[in-house]
Amino acid sequence: MCRDFYDVVILSGGFSKRFGSDKCEFCISGKRMIERVAEVFDRPIVVSHVDRRLKMDHIFVEDKERRGPGYALKLAVPFLKREKVFVTGCDFPFIKKEVADLICSKNFDVSMPITEEPQPLLGCYKAELIRRYDVRRLMDLIEVARSVYLVGTEEIAFVDPNLLSLRNVNTVSDLGRRCRVFTKSRIIFR
To answer: What is the pTM of this model?
Structure first.
């Protein structure tokens, strides 16, 4: 598989209401969550209301308005160079590149993991779809896509057996929560 066949956008400008403080700046084993995510990828595009002062090579895009993930993703469009874009948040601090590679390897307009429900903040989208539609919520991209691949946890477990990449940290207690939902992959065509 080609090494850099997708761009990466890290959304890190949310309000962290459930977390109680800026979760992107929260340290796990001495490393901020935003650093943990960014270091997995080559030159990610980081969209945030503040410069996250990352030491690794990245593109910073300022989101002054903070109108949600759809708007933040649209701000990254001028920096997209590849046909696909993997989108994640800083609150997936255990993401593995192999999981992003697996999700983006699917030849669909949209591909994303599904646990209890689809997870759009670990999704891979055709860049053309993002350029064409203005959406407030990333889930809205599923509605306009002609083809969607929902990657089941059974498939993700081949590259991440403990499913740590799927751990979404919205509260401190989420750090210890494990994904125990086993789903099969599904395809949707319109």
So the answer is: 0.90
